[in-house]
Amino acid sequence: MIVAVGVNTDGRREVLGMDVGPFEAETFWTAFLRKLARRGLRGVKLVISDAHEGTGSPSARARSTKSV
Fold first, then answer.
1. What is the pLDDT of residues 21-53, one digit of tens each?
2. How far is it, in rounded angstroms, from Cα 22 to Cα 44?
3. Beta strand 2-7 pairing with 13-19
4. N or C: which end of the chain has fewer CB within 10 A?
5. 22 CB contacts (<8 Å, ≥6 apart)?
6. Distance between CA 47 and CA 60 in Å, rounded?
7. Are 37 and 62 within 8 A, CB to CB?
8. How far apart, in Å, are the Cα atoms of 5 and each of 12, 24, 46?
C-alpha cells in the first residue's frame, strides 16, 4: 500500500491518494502519480519515498505531464 500525503497552505497534512499494488514496479508508480495529477495535484516541490525501484522515473514524468 502506498499513501501520498501533502501539506496545504495552512501547514496541515492531507492524504492526497492511496493505492494497493506492486509498489516496486515503475508502471504502478507512473499510474498512481498520473492519477494524482488528473485529480488536480499541482505545484509539487518535493517527493520523498523509500528506495523503491520504481519511483525515480515516474515521479519526473508525472511532474512534467500537463493536463488540458
1. 887 788 898 899 999 999 999 888 888 877 666
2. 23
3. antiparallel
4. C
5. 28
6. 10
7. yes
8. 10, 19, 11
Per-residue confidence (pLDDT) for residue 25, from 0 to 100: 85
Contact 26, 53 (CB under 8 A): yes
- The DSSP H or E segment spanning 28 is helix 26-38
Query: Total domain count for the chain?
Result: 1
Q: What is the pLDDT of residue 66?
A: 47
Query: Distance between CA atoms of 51 and 65, rounded to whole angstroms?
Result: 23
Average pLDDT score over the chain: 80
pLDDT for the residue 15? 96
Q: Quote the crossing angle between the two packed helices 56-64 and 26-38, to the nearest 10°.
A: 30
Cell of 33: 502519480
Tell me how crowded residue 62 is: count the other CB atoms within 10 A of its CB: 20
